[in-house]
Specification:
The complex is a heterodimer.
Chain A (H helix, E strand, L loop, with lengths): L2 E6 L7 H14 L4 E5 L7 H5 L9 H5 L5 H4 L1 E2 L6 E4 L12 H14 L2 E5 L6 H8 L3 E6 L3 H14 L4 H4 L6 E9 L1 H5 L6 H8 L2 E7 L3 H8 L10 H13 L16 H5 L3
Helix pairs in contact in A: 1-12
Chain B lengths: L15 E5 L4 H14 L1 H4 L3 E5 L8 H13 L3 E6 L6 H6 L3 E2 L17 E5 L10 E3 L8 E4 L4 E3 L8 E4 L3 E7 L2 E4 L9 E6 L3 E4 L2 E4 L12 E6 L2 E6 L5
Parallel strand pairs in B: 1-2, 2-3, 3-4, 6-8, 7-9, 8-10, 9-11, 10-12, 11-13
Antiparallel strand pairs in B: 1-5, 12-15, 13-14, 15-16
The chains are: A alpha/beta, B alpha/beta.
Chain lengths: ~270, ~240
Amino acid sequence: MGKVIVVTSGKGGVGKTTTSASFATGLAAQGHETVVIDFDVGLRNLDLIMGCERRVVYDFVNVINKEANLNQALIRDKRVEKLSILPASQTRDKEALTEEGVSGIINELKEKFDYVICDSPAGIEQGAVMAMRFADEAIIVTNPEVSSVRDSDRILGMLSSKTVRAETGGEPIKEHLVITRFNPSRADSGEMLSIEDITDLLAIRLLAVIPESESVLSASNIGAPVIMDKDSRAGQAYEDCVKRYLGEDLPHRFLALPKKGLIDRLLGR
Amino acid sequence: MEYKTTNIKADKFTFPVVELLTTELESFFNEMDIRTSQAPAFFLNAPLVLDFTKLEGNSVTFLELVVDYLRTRGMNPLGVRGCPLTLAEKVDELKLAVLPEERKPRKPVARKDDSISIKTIPSEVPAVHNVFHTRTVRSGQKLTAMDGDLTVVASAGAGSELIAAGNIHVYGALRGRAIAGVGGDKSCRIFCQKLDAELVSIAGTYRLSDDIDDRFRRQPVQIFLEGEQLQVQLLSETP
């Protein structure tokens, strides 16, 4: 039976889709059958980040409405063998997501895949609630910034009340914190919240710290999740994230500024 | 006959009695809005009794508008007392219970010159029921303890609400709202290990974060009423 992991945040634009894409890719690359689902009906992005936007025939809502079956809608990734994507609809909106519809699809996916990653939309309405509803675990993506932390706290509250596990008194959802867009120099100077501030405010286990990196934007433009860019600091941090999730005890890298070499200093970088 | 479907027994409850003092609806609405915003959880779904004893010159329309207003604000007017006979039919129509008059005269507990006064008439002290929470209170969550103390053995995040008829204890950081003494008990206190609250209130007297002195921020404090004034005191300074 597969594990359902929701990637959520509350706040928009913090890196949920970036994280979903890289995390799913990483898990698949480690040998696990993984599917990543875009729950942002009407504002779909996952297909762009994954680079499969030109191969979308049927989507999540088509399957809910029984206009297509799951196999017709799932897109196999061309680069990573064990990775599949279930895109969202662009023409409809979140009202199209029904509890029975979503539940049925998630159950079907749990039988075929080891990991079902749900890329949640921003906010706390229907789309976000449906994305977290059937989750066994949650990754909360947070920027080191006050409004993002406040919204993540709200989402954490909803994870312990609006999910099937919470409502049926099941084992609580395992929560993981991923801090994205972390800039060590700004954290040092006090402009950004520090990691200690964030973990103190949210009180959940830190899974990974992803540094701010220009490679994230480049990655989404070329349609390859940033974890595939082995030179990028963000990509490497996502690699660590997946390994840490799977049980390896890795220290957090990229918490401090890279030391400038002699050449860099001579050139004034 | 032996009854198998139900057990019927008498029980005692404490309800707020809203003593109506004026038929001026605007003022009534305004003041009720202020009251409910000060202690929102106290009034949400609250069963209320409307007391007409002190009201002069009321009308069927007045009763209807008052009940309508209260219901749309999420309150539950469930009965009346001291109603003149002219309102009897409307009371029946609105399905309100007719409750007995007050038996002995009591001094109204009005804080200012209000157009309405609210007092609770405990016929017997309700059993104390303390509520405990051991997980972080998240933004948007509301915890209530309507018959006792509320204790959180964790932190309460910004955007959360802690509401208690008794005291509030937070063995962690208090970052949200803490509303104690909601039934009118002015002896209630708020305790926390780190004060960062957005708003604190005891028996209706409240203070905003902005008005709390900086030297109390992020410190272990206790908050209590001295007369009508809220006092914030560092726990380290307690004699």
